[in-house]
Amino acid sequence: MTIRKELFSAGGVPAVRWTPADDATDRPLILIGHGGGHHKTHPAVLHRAHHFVRSGFAAVSVDVPNHGDRPTDDHLQRMATEIRTRADSGEDLAPLLAAFHARVAEQTVGEWQAVLDHLEYGPVGYWGVSLGCGLGVPFVAAEPRVRAAVLGLGGASAPASAAAAARITVPIEFLIQWDDERIPRAQSVALFDAFGSVDKTLHANPGRHGDRLPEHELDSAVRFFTRHLTPP
Amino acid sequence: MTIRKELFSAGGVPAVRWTPADDATDRPLILIGHGGGHHKTHPAVLHRAHHFVRSGFAAVSVDVPNHGDRPTDDHLQRMATEIRTRADSGEDLAPLLAAFHARVAEQTVGEWQAVLDHLEYGPVGYWGVSLGCGLGVPFVAAEPRVRAAVLGLGGASAPASAAAAARITVPIEFLIQWDDERIPRAQSVALFDAFGSVDKTLHANPGRHGDRLPEHELDSAVRFFTRHLTPP
ipTM score here? Predict the structure, then answer.
């Protein structure tokens, strides 16, 4: 399958969509949130996007503020630097990560909604871990077009994230890296417990925060989105 | 697909095999361990067996001592009654369950190996939760023909079960019922942690011990066994 990549912008925010080159039919869309320090066409995003397109979906990814082709935001840049410094020294990251996610989500929830408006899709799925989870939780809570979400590598470190998770009622597949050195396991479990969804499932795999997720989790995400976004 | 059901016995132990009626080719075999108080053709076993056969496998199930078509074993019967009584009164079941599983596994490990000898299959998968996990852990640890196992709804309540789990190195998909009132979550997690396997994944879903597992877990088991038992 030849995959078409289209760069576009919505409300001035740079984004990219992947679809089959020879298939203009209306497919369910998966919005992929990229990780911290990454961007909309990072290899990890591209790998998932291509897999989703080969599995019957369209995929879209958006540069987060202070990432990719976005201008530098001095405040976010300072916060990101401090997060890296604290991570390297083994300090508790939770409060700073929560503040960072909350600050960025103030922009991204509306930006990602504008991307969906621009593309005019029907049912949408969301896939995001780490930064993609921190920003995904408030987005999925706010956006009714999102009908199912794969989230993970994130925790309920702040009351605000637990409260947003509680407003989510769509099916959730939640990933934990079992040896995550950044997100305490108890905080990950607390976020899983906080989701208001009746249909939620937790997948834990051995590995640290930055380790590659097992490939079978991508297959599982496809099966999950197919169940919830594709008419039987 | 028409499914053929063959009752047979191996070493005097009653068993059943399911295969496609019109396909005599050598398929990978899934041995399904039944739950406590159930038997080899309990609806929950039958549902999984048919799904496995429709997905490219053969399936086999064996009556556990004091279950199904096996004669009554007074000692096991008394233990089972005491487990039910304690469960109803909300007492800690772990020590008694561990003793029960150890006592039954003394017989079933050899019996199930005799079933595999009788059937002369190549790669074998094992699927079992609850009693099927308590008996499955020592079986999978002892039997090199088992190349992958789905286990769950069981805990590392006794040093013997953690030690057997540590000897297991084949891929494991491990299920936890997140609201299990019989197996404390920490004991389930301890069993998952005890497996010696590099490739292991934990799936947790909301629900109590006896609640029906989500159907997507059966689909996941098929994908798991296909990855590990079927040549690419």
Answer: 0.92
Chains A, B: CB contacts within 8 A come to: 43
Nearest to A200 among B200, B206, B219 (CB): B206
Is the pLDDT reported for residue A181 higher than 80?
Answer: yes
Residue B142 structural domain: 3-229
Considering its fold, how many domains does chain A have in total?
Answer: 1
The pLDDT assigned to A231 comes to 82
Which of B201, B220, B223 is closest, CB to CB, to A205?
B201
Q: What is the CATH number of the domain that holds B79?
A: 3.40.50.1820
Whole-number Å distance between alpha carbons of B64 and B171: 25
Q: Which residues of B touch A202 (CB under 8 A)?
A: 178, 202-205
Indicate left, alpha or beta for A11 from its phi (over 0: left) and psi (-120 to 50: alpha).
left
Q: Which residues of A touch B202 (CB under 8 A)?
A: 178, 202-205
Q: Which residues contact A25 (CB under 8 A, 6 or more apart)?
A: none
Q: Which residues of A touch B221 (CB under 8 A)?
A: none
pLDDT in tens, A96-136: 989 999 999 999 999 999 999 999 888 999 999 999 999 99
Rounded to a whole number of angstroms, the distance from the CA of A201 to the nearest CA of chain B is 5
Written as six digits, the tokens of A185 are 């396991």
